[in-house]
Amino acid sequence: MNAFPSLKLIDGKATAARVLAEVREQVQTLRQGGVQPGLAVVLVGADAASQVYVRNKVLRAEEVGIRSLEHRLPADTTQAQLLTLIDRLNRDSEVNGILVQLPLPQHVDEHCILQAISPLKDVDGFHSENVGGLAQGRDVLTPCTPSGCMRLLRDACGELRGKHAVVVGRSNIVGKPMAALLLQADCTVTMVHSQSRDLPALCRQADIVVAAVGKPKLIGAEWLKPGAVVIDVGINRIEEGGHSRLVGDVDFAAALPQVAAITPVPGGVGPMTIAYLLKNTLLALDLQQQAAHPERTPCLSPC
Ligand code: GUN
Questions:
Q1: 102 lines ligand 1 (CB under 6 A)
Q2: At the N or C end, where does the chain have fewer CB atoms within 10 A?
């Protein structure tokens, strides 16, 4: 039996299933029109966690009818070889999305690889064209995990305008794009990180806390204002009582009596990342079709 009141739990699994059902329906319509979206997933090396993530991405893509093209390359793949593959995928009209799983081996320059992906196929939203576009509030491909968190927040909070959101962590993958998306949703946004002074006091001001630091159970009850909504992006494996289990960056049991709503780990943010990757693949296809036929989507402002 679940000891926690379910109303407080933000069910990422159920929301992700709804997003995937929407994607599946859109893919069906596209396929009836003779177009099958394609997603290329590139994995370099044999990092165990990355292998699991990539397998899940490929499986979910196939479940919704997106053609997935998996490229598993050995750990000693050179940067030049990887750039050659990306160039081929950029030119392939059957590939609408390209994802290079991170981290890459140390001898490969991650920034250089991410910049080589066509911004219109950049389903991770990591290319600086898309990072800049998000900062400017343009309609671009945005990183999957923060996009999924926004969907959970909109469902849990309704109106986000004017809410004070505190983002804990400043990574390029989650913290920074999350802050930009919250700002775009008219939140007041504070970013805090390991060098911030009095982290608990800063977090206690928040209506919304997004935790993305990778430190197990860092955020306790004393960090949270009563009635706050908490999105826990952390997925940390810990050993406890002779067992290994996954916990978030938030001390879930301690936070629960304090909060209005919270994502569990696992089953909160995790499933949303893949759902938004597949949603982004359809968005990428749409952007590519617009770029191929600019006359069908008139630009109203000079750009
Ligand atoms: N590694 C961990 N998270 C991600 C992600 O969202 N995208 C990619 N490409 N690699 C990751």
A1: yes
A2: N
CATH code for the part of the protein at 35-118:
3.40.50.10860
pLDDT, tens only, 66-118: 999 999 999 999 999 999 999 999 999 999 999 999 999 999 999 999 999 99
Q: Which residues are catalytic?
A: 57, 101, 124
241 band by pLDDT with thresholds 50, 70 and 90: confident
From 42, 43, 101, 172, the mutation candidate for ligand 1 (largest count of ligand atoms within 8 A of CB) is 101
Tell me how far apart the alpha carbons of residues 38 and 28 are, in angstroms, rounded to a whole number: 13
Amino acid at 54: V
Answer whether 99 contacts ligand 1 (Cβ < 6 A).
yes
Tokens 């800063």 -> residue? 202
Question: What is the CATH number assigned to the segment(s) 143-271?
Answer: 3.40.50.720
101 lines ligand 1 (CB under 6 A): yes
Domain boundaries, the chain: 35-118, 143-271
d(CA 273, CA 146): 8
pLDDT tens column, 197-231: 999 999 999 999 999 999 999 999 999 999 999 99
For the chain, the first-to-last Cα distance in angstroms comes to 57
